Every structure is written in structure tokens, then in C-alpha cells.
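Entry 14. Structure prediction run on the chain below.
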Amino acid sequence: MLAETFYRYREETRSAETLFVTDAAAQITTEPTELELRAYHKANPAPFTAPEYRAVTLVVLSAKDLTDAAAVTDADVETAFKEQAETLGTPEKRALSQMVLPDQAAADKAAKALSEGRAFVDVAKEFAGMDEAGTDLGTVARDEVLAEIADAAFATPAGGVTAPLPGPGGIGFYIVKVREITPAHVATLDEVREKLRATIAHERAIDALYTQVNRMEDDLGKGLSIEAVAEAMNIKAVKIAALDSDGNGLDGKPAAGLPENAQAIVASAFETEEGADSTLREMGDDAFFVLRVDKVTKPAVRPFETVKDQVKDAVVAERKRDAALAFAKQLAERLKTVEDAKAVAVDAGVAYAETKALKRYMARSQSDLPGQVLQDIFTLNMGEAKVTRADGGYFIARLKSVTQADPAADTTGVDTMRQELTSVLKDDLVTQLAGALRKDLGVTVHQDVLNQILNPGATPAAAN
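Output returned:
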């Protein structure tokens, strides 16, 4: 009987009608007075409280600022070209197919079939059990294939097939077909001149950056101020007047003077004490920074005059919510006595919707209604209506139908339910029994025995 009861509960289906009253559509009769606004501001300080702000002095060391391509001479580029010529072009690439055979006998049979003119794909399917997609290695360079097949695969002409090749460790045999060859391209100096110039400039900038980092660490370690060190190194020290934990200034926009991708800077500013220097830290690609927290301004309620418009918006929004709720409750009362919910919605000028048949544990995947509204549908009785807040308004839900599940019509489903309940009850009983035994008898852990079980080859520790 227990399985049948749970089955009825889980498999029951319900459909419902909903009306939706939005806050935005709600009407308020009077505008709030200034006295009311001030009272609201005083009673609800949190929304109008400025966050903690920090004023900082910031120095950023960046390889980007030190890159000077114009300083790289043609002679520098030509020297780099000679040193890197072999790596500047593109290597030969080949479009390859391979089949992997289990042993020499299978490989010989496959090779014989290929020599008789049979298609590579057909032979691979018969002797290696591989389809066309499975044989395709793509277009690859020599260093992208197994060393055991690379030489043969890159010595065979286009359209050709290798002899059977022993696989790694002597396991299996490979036969490779060369479908197409893309010749290697040897780059000319003109083709790579500007790329080399940029690379050389960047490498020199990185070297200069780390020289700056070392110098700055040394000078700060001597007690010099951030400004003094920056001036001596001809680097700009930026003053940021106010910075919140999101990286915004007093106007709510990204703080002036803060570079892009400054999460590490903001985090450091809020980890460093007032008056102290941060550590010199890495920031993104090829950049470092150090800062000093000059001032900490604690969170404070903004004066009414500076947030009057926001206060008014909040009061109006609250009153609209209240008006929407009152109207939704009126509609809910009407739905208890009026049969046609759609007519009520049309008369009230609100949205109407009807669900399909929903199951208790599948409703979220069957409907776009908010989760709380779906839960309400499965707690309502016929004739009841419930108001729930969601999505910037209030939903009024009323049951339209309830269809009881019939265990007799689905014996397989009931059997599945019975098995699930049996498993759950067994686990629960075992847990309860184990808990009771621990409580009554206590538990002693023999670590030496446990160690031997987990690591049989270990030598037992000597007794103390």
C-alpha cells in the first residue's frame, strides 16, 4: 500500500490558471511629500549608504609602456632572422589516414588487400574495424604524429600507402595513407621583418620591465616613497581620489586613473592598511603595480539632498508594490466565486495564462512559471486562489483540474516506486542502526590495522 500511496502522490497531475499583476501597472493616487521622503530615508538607510572608499597612489610598471619598435634596427632584425630562419616558416604538412591492426598477420592481410587496389576505407573497416572518421589523422606536421610512423609517413608520396609499421612498444601495426601534401614554406626576411621587429621590441621591454621591478623593490625597501621612486624612474604616480570595492568612483563609474583589468589593484587596495604601501604585485600580462592607501572613508549614509531622487523612486516603487498586492488580493477573492478566470483577467486588464497538466516533480521543466508559483499549485485545493510575489509583480494561481494517478493502470511504475522505497528505507535503517551502535557501544579506531588494510606492503610501526 505504501508504494501505491507514493505513486499517487508523485504521478498526480494538476493544471491551473494564473493572473499576473505587475508593479509597473499599479496606480498610486498621491505623490510622496518631502516629509515622507525624509522619513523613509531615515528609516531605510541601507539603500542610500555609500560604500567604503579608498584614496590611493598607484604606480603601474608595464612592458607595453616600454616597448619601442623604432629602436630595433634593421641589423637587429637581420640577425634574428638568421638565428631563427628554420622556425619562421611553416613546416611540411600531410593529410594522413591510418589503420591500426592488432598483429602482424592482420597487417599483412590488410597490406595485401591494399596492393590489390581495394579502397583504404574498406580495408580499414574489414581488418581494423575502423570507419572513415576513425582513420582520419587530419592535416599534420611531422612532430604531430607518432615517432614510429613519422619517417615512413613523410617519405611516402601523395596517394601512397606505407608498409605495415610496428606500433609504440611493439604493440600493434600501423598502415598509413598519404592523402595530400602541403609543402613546407621557407619565410623570407621581408615576410617576417615587422613581426621580428615587434618580437625583439617586446623581449627588450620585458627585460627593461624586470630591471624596473628590481630597482623599485630595492628603492621602496630603503624607505623611499612611491612618488619619489616613480619620479626617479620617470614613471607617473597616479592619484585616485576614491575607489570602491568594485573599482568605481564616487559617481558609480570606473574610477578615473584606474587601468583596465584592474581587479588585482582593487583587491590590493582593500587589503592594504591606511598609510601603508602594498607589495609590488603582478598584474595581468607583463605588468606590475604598487600602491599606497592614502585615506579610508568608511561607509556612510548619503545626505538626503544628494539622493532625494533615489529615495522618491524607492518610495514610489514600494507604494506600487503595495497597490499591486492589494489589487491581486481583490482578484484572488473574485476568483473564489467567479468561474471564468480569463474574463476576470480581461476585465481587470491583467495577463492571463493557463498551464498544461503538470506533475509535482516535473513542473519546473514543464512550465515557465516561477518555482514558488508551481509549488503553490500543488498545495491548493479546488476553488482556492493564492497570491505569490515573483518577477516584479504578483501571480494569482487557481486550480483548474486535478487528475488522480491510478496505480492499477501502471503496475510497472508502481513496481519501480516499490523498489525505490525499499532501497531508501534500507539505507535509512542501516544509518539509524549504525548510529545507535556507535552511541551505545562506542567506536575505537585501530589505526595500525587500518594501515595494513590500506597498504598491505607497509611495515607496521613499532609500538611505543
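Residues 189-221 form the longest helix (33 residues).
Filed with the rest of this week's runs.
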